[in-house]
Amino acid sequence: MKITKRLEKIANLVEEGKRVIDIGTDHGLVPLYLAKNNISKDILATDISAKSLKKLEDKIDKNLENIIRTKVCNGLNGIDIKENQIAVIAGMGAITIIEILTQNIEKVRKLDYVICEGNIGNEKLRKFLNENDFYIDKDFLIKDGRKHYDIIRFRNGKDRKLSLGEIYFGKFIYHEKNPLVMKRIDQIYKKNIRFKENIEKFSKDKEGLDLINERLEAIREVRNHEN
C-alpha cells in the first residue's frame, strides 16, 4: 500500500518484530502499512475518537484481524506495556505529545522506544526529553509536499545536554549535514526578523519578543558553527 513520505519515514523507523502502539492513529495508515508489510504482528491502534477508529476497523480484513487491535483511549491510559513494545505518536503538536508522555511517563520508560512526529513546536519536545532523561537516537527533518516535519525517536536513558541550536533544529545538526535544515533555518530567520520588527514597533508583547530572540539566538549558534 502507498502512504505519504512522512508516514513512510515514521514506519521505517519501526524495527521488524516489535509490538506497536500507534497513539492517535486517526485513519490507521501506519498500522495498516506495518501489518501489510509484515513489519509487526502485534499492533494496538488507539484514538480518543471512536469515529476515527471505525474508519480503520472497516479496513481490517480477515488477514489483519489477528494483527491489528483498536482501543478508544487517551494516550497510554488503560494500556499495559509489554516486552518488545514501542509506540508511535504522530500528526499532533509537540505540546499534546508532551502531555501524553507526562500522563504516563513511567509507562513510556518501559517501552523500547517511541517515535514522534510533532507538526509544531518540536523544540519544546526536545527540551522536555532532554530534561527528563530520555535519549534521542534519531532526529531528522524531511519535506513532504510543501510542509516540513521533524521526526524524533527516543528511549529511556540519560542524554548529553543539548545546546540551544540542537534543541531548535535537531540533535544531530552538527553531525549530519542536511541542506534542507539550513534552507529552513534561513526561512525561519527572515520570518522572525520581520516578527521582531513588528512587535517592537506595534506591540508590548515581551513574552513573544523573548521567544523570537531565543529562536534567533539558536540560529546564530548554528550559523557560527557552520562558519
Brief summary of the model shown:
With 227 residues, the chain is of the alpha/beta class.
If you had to describe this structure to a student in words, what would you say it looks like?
Helix 2 links the parallel strand 1 (19-23) and strand 2 (43-47). The protein has 227 residues and is α/β, with parallel strands linked by helices. It has two domains: 5-162, Rossmann fold; 179-225. It has helices at 5-11, 29-36, 50-57, 94-103, 105-110, 122-131, 164-169, 179-202, 206-226; strands at residues 19-23, 43-47, 68-72, 85-92, 114-118, 134-144, 147-156. Helix 4 packs parallel to helix 6 (122-131). The model has no long low-confidence stretch (mean pLDDT 95). The protein is elongated, with a radius of gyration of 19 Å. The longest helix is centred in the C-terminal third of the chain and has 24 residues, at 179-202.
